[in-house]
Design a protein that fits this description.
With about 350 residues, the protein is α/β, with parallel strands linked by helices. Helices cover about 40% and strands about 15% of the residues. The protein has eleven helices and twelve strands. The strands form two sheets. Strands 1, 2, 3, 4, 5, 6, 7, 8, 9 and 12 form a ten-stranded parallel sheet that branches. Strands 10-11 form a two-stranded antiparallel ribbon. α2 packs across α9, α4 packs parallel to α5 and α8 runs parallel beside α9. The chain starts with about 35 loop residues before the first helix and ends with a strand. It binds iron/sulfur cluster (SF4). Iron/sulfur cluster binds next to loops.
Length: about 350
């Protein structure tokens, strides 16, 4: 083959044929526009993955995956109406309301998670917001888990500034509070709290000095433009979340979204890649929905820059691949747990 046959004629060059500068993705930006994020989603798939990989490698070891475990410390009976959630008291999903778990039980679960290789232990409670009495108990759990040498994370609903301060004082490292979706689609999913209230909780968490875990859910019937809007909103927060969970909807019988058509797996991978490129130093977490995802799709997500997973047979109330399946997949892909 003649050398000239290897060179694409100029007329076939596309706008995305711009070289990636050495510093592309090295410095986080907070001024991402929707047009820029939309352009990422519209890239040819190999180009998008190449860009995501480049940014990932500039910021992380691509073979290291952070492993978290999530425990439901207070299950069901939530007064909120999040359309995807089996723990809402408004939907008949078979999830029974339980009391807050005892401290000893939580610590036993945390020890087991550590022994299984988790470095972060997340505690989730199905509340609109914690009552101060409940917060006393959660603070004791956070302090106990921290003493075991694990990073601590909690997701308890909306927080006041004072509550965020108390959690920080008890040793909380991360607080999870998702934006869920784009602002303009949010009202289709949740009516009992506003987007602005979510942003206010994130501000309180950040001001208390707690790292932020904040992402969203795809496959809820939103359009691509809504996915673009969600990523653009996250990427233009004053500080990027340290962790960005990208969830695929788990369609639970009894919830309003039970019959949503399944989202194309490659569109999910595109969302992960857009999160990686726009939030280069965040841990991008492959979260809910992995149970129903092929190993090949999960491998593409790692290629697209995902570098964190939840480990364990359950994510709050929905199934998750067991530790053995995860360990086997990580071994096959040559990935290892991040210290
Ligand atoms: S997502 Fe959280 S706030 Fe919403 S219904 Fe479920 S437990 Fe309640």
């Amino acid at each position: 083959m003649a050398a000239s046959e290897h060179i694409a004629p100029a007329s076939r060059a596309q706008p995305w044929h711009k070289p990636l500068g050495a510093a592309a993705g090295a410095v986080p930006r907070h001024d991402w526009t929707r047009a820029e994020v939309r352009a990422l989603f519209e890239l040819p798939f190999p180009e998008l993955l190449y860009r995501a990989q480049t940014v990932h490698r500039q910021n992380f070891d691509p073979a290291a995956v952070q492993v978290s475990t999530l425990l439901s410390i207070k299950t069901g009976g939530c007064p909120e109406d999040c359309a995807y959630c089996p723990q809402s008291a408004r939907y008949d999903t078979g999830v029974r309301a339980e009391k807050l778990m005892a401290l000893d039980t939580v610590l036993a679960e945390a020890r087991a998670a550590k022994a299984a290789g988790a470095s972060r232990f997340c505690m989730g409670a199905a509340w609109r917001e914690p009552k101060d009495r409940d917060l006393d108990a959660v603070c004791a759990m956070v302090a106990g888990v921290k003493d075991l040498g694990l990073e601590t994370c909690a997701t308890l609903g909306m927080l006041t500034a004072a509550q965020a301060g108390r959690l920080k004082d008890s040793g909380l490292d991360y607080y999870n509070h998702n934006l869920d979706t784009a602002p303009e689609f949010y009202g289709d999913i949740i009516t009992t709290r506003t987007y602005q209230e979510r942003l206010a909780t994130l501000d309180h968490v950040r001001a208390a000095g707690i790292a932020v875990c904040c992402g969203g859910i795809v496959g809820m019937g939103e359009t691509r433009e809504h996915r673009v809007g969600m990523i653009a909103t996250l990427a233009s927060l004053p500080a990027h979340p340290e962790s960005v969970p990208i969830n695929m909807l788990v369609r639970v019988a009894g919830t309003p979204l039970a019959d949503e058509p399944k989202l194309d797996a490659l569109e999910f991978v595109r969302t992960v890649a857009a999160a990686r490129i726009t939030m280069p130093r965040a841990m991008v977490r492959l979260s809910a929905g992995r149970e129903d995802m092929s190993e090949e799709t999960q491998a593409l997500c790692f290629l697209a820059g995902a570098n964190s997973i939840f480990y364990g047979p359950k994510l709050l109330t929905t199934p998750n691949p067991g530790p053995d399946r995860d360990r086997e997949l990580m071994e096959r892909l040559g990935l290892r747990a991040m210290e």
